[in-house]
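// run 5 | inverse folding | seed 20
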């Protein structure tokens, strides 16, 4: 389900598996101010998810399906010498009474230095005991900066740390780059989604992230990519959008990329110089609900 609806149980169904993804969080917009004091906005979080499998008798004849929208990115800042605007928390998806709940934090708007990325949701998994919340499945949106935008990091880890356990939930957005009239400042790359079956220090990327923007190339961050379902045996969320590049001498700062569906975080917007609107934060990818009936 990609839109809210009503599920009707088939009379032949013996058991039901449900996968419920929240939307991804929106990235913050960049600050608008003077050179080197206009930081980019932070990246938005990936949406959390919950899976549940039970015998058919535990489900009603019909269940309400609700799809959480991706969070809005922070709007461009149009006032001189003013911080960027925070991104919005995403909507919550549900199937009957089954839901992950909401993320509590937002992606910060750009400041004079750095802005904090939104912490993503983990996974509550009933059919894979090795993947329980608390085994570091959550990642953090890239930090917005008055220099280059930050990459996505593991919750509690250092920036850019690879987290192969985040394959199920997807990933967060990259941080926006700062405005600098002397040095070009790139946006941060969004979070990739990695294969859980790759046991090396550089795990296999199965869904590539959106690239960060640069003024000398494409200043807007690239969008994240759609997650996988029934592709080579893999199920995963969408990747994160790239952060927008900061303004140097061009006409505008870069906007953050949109998070991939389901639940990818939006990228942060780039910082701008006074007189020019800052880059807006990218919206998060919407949620999805999968229902699998076994006859």
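// decoded
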């Amino acid at each position: 389900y990609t839109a809210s609806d009503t599920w009707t149980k088939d009379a032949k169904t013996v058991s039901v598996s449900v996968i419920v993804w929240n939307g991804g969080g929106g990235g913050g917009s960049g600050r608008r101010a003077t050179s080197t004091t206009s930081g980019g906005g932070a990246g938005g979080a990936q949406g959390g998810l919950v899976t549940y499998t039970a015998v058919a008798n535990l489900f009603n004849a019909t269940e309400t399906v609700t799809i959480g929208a991706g969070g809005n990115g922070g709007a461009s800042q149009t006032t001189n010498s003013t911080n960027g605007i925070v991104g919005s928390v995403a909507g919550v998806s549900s199937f009957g009474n089954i839901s992950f709940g909401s993320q509590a934090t937002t992606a910060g708007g750009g400041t004079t230095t750095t802005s904090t990325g939104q912490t993503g949701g983990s996974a509550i998994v009933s059919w894979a005991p090795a993947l329980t919340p608390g085994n570091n499945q959550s990642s953090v949106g890239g930090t917005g900066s008055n220099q280059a935008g930050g990459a996505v990091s593991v919750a509690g880890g250092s920036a850019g740390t690879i987290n192969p356990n985040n394959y199920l939930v997807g990933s967060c957005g990259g941080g926006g780059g700062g405005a600098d009239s002397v040095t070009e400042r790139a946006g941060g790359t969004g979070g990739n989604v990695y294969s859980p079956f790759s046991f090396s220090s550089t795990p296999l990327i199965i869904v590539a992230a959106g690239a960060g923007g640069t003024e000398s190339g494409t200043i807007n961050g690239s969008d994240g990519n759609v997650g996988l379902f029934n592709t080579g045996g893999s199920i995963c969320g969408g990747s994160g959008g790239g952060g927008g590049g900061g303004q140097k001498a061009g006409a505008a700062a870069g906007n953050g990329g949109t998070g991939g569906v389901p639940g990818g975080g939006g990228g942060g917007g780039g910082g701008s110089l006074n007189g020019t609107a800052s880059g807006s934060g990218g919206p998060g990818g919407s949620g999805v609900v999968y229902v699998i009936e076994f006859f």
